């Protein structure tokens, strides 16, 4: 064999072998019949065999062609799957686990939609949420330890990553539903005089809020500072405290009748949520499939 026997030559061989017709093989490969005939002549010369004999029943393979059919088919599959990155991915049967770095805001806002969408088409596919601090997250994405990052990650701006916007969010206030004095005629004055629960979670959204209020000279009287969002319903329900949280977090607590949601008494800062991934998995079939499912679930809901 020589350089004339390449992947395209192998595909031509298999097309003729499968269809037993030069015309049908050419149509399958998107070639002209004369072009395929010329390629077949080169194949015969390269392999030193007629390969296919023209009979009334079509192009019948020679003994040599029959011997070559299986190794050539295996070679083409191996090249496409391992080298050309055309690995087969069947969401209906695949059981892999995808690792997603997500802020608690993103987890509350987006993961229910993601899980519902996945359950319909890929019931065995699993998601694992991981907490990875910066700059470790950049390395984890680069090295494949994390498949996707979901939420507000302004540090992931390197050209090595791809990102797509999936939503925009702001902040609101939540307090106990029985805190009528605060709720009635809620104002900036009441906001600054109230006792606050300040969440210092390891997310960029809280840093964004803190910078925003400080620049505008808006004071918050912090009676409690905590790294947790999930304890807020219990704390606020039994105290006169108030908390400023991303709207996605407040919406996650919306069914709790012991809480009330109030708009900020000043213009809210906003932040974009993105889906981030490494360019190294941009063309991976499983990753492409997952991203398409998530985009459809996230964007269609927000429209």
3D architecture notes:
With 303 residues, the chain is of the alpha/beta class. The chain folds into three domains: 77 residues, Arc Repressor Mutant, subunit A; 103 residues, Periplasmic binding protein-like II (D-Maltodextrin-Binding Protein, domain 2), CATH 3.40.190.10; 99 residues, D-Maltodextrin-Binding Protein, domain 2 (3-Layer(aba) Sandwich), CATH 3.40.190. 44% of the residues lie in helices and 22% in strands. It is built from twelve helices and twelve strands. The strands form three sheets. A five-stranded mixed sheet has the order 4-3-5-12-6. The protein has a five-stranded mixed sheet with strand order 9-8-10-7-11. The chain has a two-stranded antiparallel sheet with strand order 1-2. A hairpin with a 2-residue loop joins strand 1 and strand 2. The two termini are 58 Å apart.
The ordered H/E elements are HHHEEHEHEHEEEHHEHEHEHEEH
- Give the mean pLDDT: 87
Shape: rod-shaped
**Number of helices, counting only DSSP H or I runs of 4 residues or more:** 12
Record field, number of beta strands: 12
CATH topology of the largest domain, by name, is D-Maltodextrin-Binding Protein, domain 2
CATH superfamily of the largest domain: Periplasmic binding protein-like II
Helix content: 40-55%
Structural class, by secondary structure, is: alpha/beta
Largest sheet: 5 strands, mixed
Question: For the largest beta sheet, what order do the strands appear in spatially?
Answer: 4-3-5-12-6
Which stretches are low in confidence, meaning pLDDT under 50 for 5 or more residues running?
A: none
């Amino acid at each position: 064999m020589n350089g004339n026997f390449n992947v395209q030559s192998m595909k031509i061989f298999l097309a003729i072998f499968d269809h037993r017709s030069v015309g049908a093989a050419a149509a399958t490969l998107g070639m002209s019949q004369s072009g395929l005939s010329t390629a077949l002549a080169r194949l015969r010369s390269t392999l030193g065999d007629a390969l296919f004999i023209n009979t009334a029943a079509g192009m019948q393979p020679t003994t040599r062609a029959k011997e070559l059919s299986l190794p050539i088919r295996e070679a083409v599959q191996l090249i496409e799957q391992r080298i050309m990155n055309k690995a087969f991915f069947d969401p209906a049967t695949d059981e892999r686990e995808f690792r997603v770095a997500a802020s608690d805001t993103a987890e509350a806002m987006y993961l229910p939609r993601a899980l519902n969408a996945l359950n319909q088409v890929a019931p065995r596919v699993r998601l694992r949420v991981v907490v990875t601090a910066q700059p470790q997250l950049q390395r984890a994405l680069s090295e494949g330890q994390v498949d996707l990052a979901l939420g507000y990650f302004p540090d992931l701006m390197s050209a090595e990553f791809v990102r797509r916007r999936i939503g925009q969010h702001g902040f609101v206030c939540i307090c106990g539903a029985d805190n009528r004095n605060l709720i009635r005629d809620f104002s900036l004055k009441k906001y600054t005089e109230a006792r606050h629960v300040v969440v210092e979670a390891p997310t960029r959204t809280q840093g964004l809020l803190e910078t925003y209020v400080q620049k505008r000279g808006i004071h918050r009287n912090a009676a409690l500072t905590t790294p947790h969002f999930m304890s807020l319903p219990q704390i606020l329900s039994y105290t006169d405290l108030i908390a400023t949280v991303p709207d996605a977090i407040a919406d996650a607590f919306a069914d709790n009748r012991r809480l009330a949601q109030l708009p900020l008494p000043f213009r809210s800062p906003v932040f974009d949520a993105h889906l981030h991934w490494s360019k190294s998995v941009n063309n991976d079939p499983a990753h492409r499939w997952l991203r398409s499912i998530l985009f459809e679930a996230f964007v269609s809901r927000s429209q």
